[in-house]
Predict the structure of RNA methyltransferase trmA family signature 2.
Amino acid sequence: MNEFIGPLELGPIAHGGHVVARHEGRVVFVRGGLPGETAIVELTDTRHDRYWNGRVRRVLEASPDRVEPELAPAAYAGTDFAFATLAAQRRLKAQVVTEQLARLGGVDAEVRVEAVSGDREGWGWRTRMRYLHEDGRVGLRGYHTDELVEPPAGTGFLLADPRGPAPHDLARHAARAGREITVTVADSGVTVTSDGRVLSGEPVVTQQVRGMDFRVRADGFWQVHPGAAEALTDAVLNALRVREGERVLDLYCGVGLFAGALARAGARVTGMEANQTAVRLARANVPQARFLASRLERGLTRLGTRADAVVLDPPRSGAGKRVIDAVTGLGARAIVYVACDPAALGRDVAGLRARGYELTGVRAFDIFPMTHHVETVVLLTRGQG
């Protein structure tokens, strides 16, 4: 497109990692900038009447939070905020969660984004890397493109967990690999897969959390930050404070991460998950709990009529009205909602509040440093009215 506008004054952060600017009355969502900066912006999408998209091409007045890159741009592939200090990134993420809870959820909350252990100052934390493979070359997919971005020689991609193989080391799998190659770094070792085939390593790996072993498929869901599973489990336990013998539902339970901790705390746990392989592993990981294989929307009637507490850990799209209505009908004293998308969290919090629950606790975790993503754990308790 190569159309440039500016100088533009960059305004507040928006959901999705953009800052908001205005040009001749139109909103421009800008990547690569920080609030308060002045910049020349290259337009990347002008298809919409009400707003455009762009990216910073030249900073005229920089924020004190800006960090100048030391390496070739390709080393930072997969990042949104590599040009900002970690402290600034966390403040921006806290602002996004606060704004989404207020605008969509109707609640004012004080949010602070916490660091978790094991991220090496924001780098080297991504234990699962999904690479593109073309003609023997291996790299990352470009932002919103199908372009292959190759890593710089000697540095690789800075987000990748260094325990995994570098992209150029994956070339030996070229004859057997499809267009995508996934590297999974687990506590038990490293697995490389492509199109459902294991190229090296084990198809099922082991992750250790709070003294428990969890078996999970190498290509199945597990938190990608090495410190995330323990941080989120601690947050769920500290929020719910389950009592011996309480009936607790772990919904969208995966391989039983939260269920294991809740069962150890004395709860009678029922988990539900759509992925049947994950449920089989959950039953082996946490034999003292009960697990049901079903899409939650279809399996709501199998959850019973009462629960003392509920853990909701839905996908990025959120839980939605049907699930919220069913869960709030169980009479639980408390619901903990684990969210990877602040907008979906805001919408679902509004639904929970409409059914008699109030937000009584918020914690947010920086388990995706250098990106705009943030994980939030909120506690909602039933009102007395």
